[in-house]
Amino acid sequence: MTAVQSPFAIGCGDFRVNYTQDMAIYKNVRVRRRVIFLVILFFLFPILAPEYYVSLATMAGIASIGAIGLNILTGFTGQISLGVGAFLGVGGYASALLTTRLGIPFWFALPLSGIFTAGIGALFGIPSLRLKGLYLAMATLAAQVIIYFLFNHWDALTGGTGGLVVQRPSLAGFSLDSEMSYYYLMLVILILTALFTLNLFRSRVGRALVAVRDRDLAAEVMGIDLFKYKIIAFAVSSFFIGVSGSLMGHYTLVITPENYGTQISIEYLAMILIGGLGSVMGSIYGAAFITLLPVVLRELMTAVREVFPNLESIFIGIKEIIFGGIIIIFLIYESEGLAKMWRNLKDYIKLWPFSY
To answer: Could you tell me how far CA 258 lies from the centroid of its own chain?
Structure first.
C-alpha cells in the first residue's frame, strides 16, 4: 500500500512517505542541495585558487581523513588513543616499502597500507578490554613509543633517521605531481571516508560502537560483545589513519620518524576535540583549523615584524602557548567544538530575529 501525500501538505513541512526517504543521510532536500553545492565548490577550488592555497587544502584534507579515523575510535566509541602518530607512520612506511622495494603500484599499496595499519591497531587495541580512560591512554602511548623506537632504529627496514624517499603516484601514465592532481586524489578519498563513516554509524555495528561509548556495562548486558566491537573500532580507525599516513607520505615525498612523534598524536587529538567529538564534519573542521593555525600565526608574526622585531624569533613558543590555550578554551566554553558552534550559528540565522 502506497502512502499518498495530500496536496494541501505541500510546502507545509518535510514529509517522508517511504523507508528510503526515512533512512537517507540528508533527509531534507535543502540540505542535500547544499551538500551537492559544497562538493561542486570543492572540486572547482583548485581551478580558482592559487597553488599555495591548494597545497594547504590538500594537507588539511589528508589530516581530515586521519581525524575522522581517530574520531571513530575516540568520539564515537569512547576509546582514548595517544598513538595516532605511530599509526600514521605505519601507514606511511608500509606504503613506501610496498612501492619502492616490492614494486607494488600505489593504488594497491594505499589500501594495503591501511589494512596493515588496521592489523597493528587491532593488536594494540587488545588491552582495551581490561583498560579504559587514563589507563587505556597510557597503553596507546606505550604503542606510540614502541613503534616510534622501531622507526628510528630498524635501519634495514625504515632507513633509520634518514627515512625513505617515495614518488608521487601515477595513473595511466599521468603522474600526480601537480598540486591540483593530488588535491583531487585527496578529495575523492576524503569524500569516500566521510560517506563510509556516516553510513557506518547508521548500521548495527555503528550503533553497537556508540552503545559501548555511552555505557559499556549496559551494552554488554544487552548482548554486545565488548571485546569484538572495541577491536573493530581500533581496526577501522587505524585503517583510515594508515591511509592518511600513506597519502601524506607520497605527498611530502619523504618519510622520516620525526614526522610521527608524540606531538603529532596530540595535534590529532586536538583536531577532534576542537572540531567536535562524534562528528564527521567536526573532524574536518578541526583538521582544517589545526592545519591552518600555524600558517595564520606565521602571517601575523610577519605583519607585526616591524613593530616587534624580536617576536618572530619566539614564534615556536608562542605557537605552542596559543595551541594549548585554544584547546583549554574549547574544553571550558564549547566542549562539542566547532561543529556545535556552526549548528548554533545556523539556528540563530534561521530563527532571527526571534530567540526561540
So the answer is: 20
Distance between CA atoms of 46 and 29, rounded to whole angstroms?
Answer: 28
Residue 269: which of 93, 83, 56, 58 has the closest Cα? 83
The helix (run of H) or strand (run of E) holding residue 238 is helix 226-252
Nearest CA to 167 out of 94, 96, 90, 88 is that of 96
Contact (Cβ atoms closer than 8 angstroms) between residue 69 and residue 238: yes
What are the extents of the domains in the chain?
Answer: 56-256, 268-276+284-356
8 A C-beta contact, residue 284 and residue 194: yes
Q: What are the start-end ranges of the H helices in the chain? A: 19-22, 29-48, 51-71, 84-100, 106-124, 134-153, 155-158, 179-200, 204-214, 216-221, 226-252, 262-275, 280-303, 315-333, 337-351
* Paired residues of 6 in beta bridges: none
- Pairing verdict, β 164-165 and 254-255: antiparallel
CB atoms within 10 A of CB 158: 22
Q: 283: left (phi > 0), else alpha (psi -120 to 50), else beta?
A: alpha
Residue 173's contacts (CB-CB under 8 Å, 6 or more residues apart) are none
Q: 72 is written with which cell numbers?
A: 571513530
pLDDT in tens, 85-108: 999 999 999 999 999 999 899 999
Chain segment 45-77, per-residue pLDDT in tens:
999 989 999 999 999 999 999 999 999 999 999
Q: Are 233 and 79 in contact (CB under 8 A)?
A: yes
* Grid-cell match 606511511, residue found: 92
* pTM score of the predicted model: 0.88
Number of CB atoms found within 10 A of residue 351's CB: 10
Q: What does the DSSP assignment read for 330-355?
A: HHHH-TTHHHHHHHHHHHHHHHTT--
